[in-house]
Amino acid sequence: MGGGVKILFKANLLLFLFLALGLIFGNSLVAASAGTLLVMKLLNSPMLLKVVERHALQWGLLFLLMAVMVPLTNAKVGGKELFKALVTPAGLVALAGGMIAAYLCGQGLGLLRLRPEVLVGLVIGIVLGVSFFKGAPVGPLAAAGFTAILLKLLGLHPK
What we know:
- By secondary structure, this protein is mainly α.
- Helices cover 79% and strands 0% of the residues.
- The two termini are 37 Å apart.
C-alpha cells in the first residue's frame, strides 16, 4: 500500500471507529458526526471538508447559544426578571460557572490547536463516560479544557 493510501485508510478507519462507538454506546452526536465526515471523505470533497473545518465550530456554538436563548423569546420573561434571577446566590454562582467554563473551553481550544491528536482520546473518553458513568455527552472543547488543565498540573502541557 502506498503512503497516501495508508493515510486515507487510517483516517477512514478512525472515523469508522468513532461511528461504531457512537452507535454501540448510544451517542448519536458522535455517530452522526463521524458518519457525516466519513461520507464527505468518501465523496472526495476536500472543499466541503475545508468549509466544515473552518466554520463548523462557530456554527455549532451559534446553534448551542440559540438553543439556550430560546426561553428569552417567551414574552413572559423580561429584563427585570432576568436581572433578579442573576443577582440571586444561584445566579451569581452560575455567572462564575459560566466564566470558568468559557475559560476552560478557551484552554481546550488552545490544546486542540497545539496537539490535535488528543481529540481521539477525548472523544473515546466522552463516549465511555456517557456509557459507563451515566455522564452527559459534553462537547470536546469542554473536555479539552479540562484535559489542558490536567496536563498543566502534571507538567505535560506543551509550552
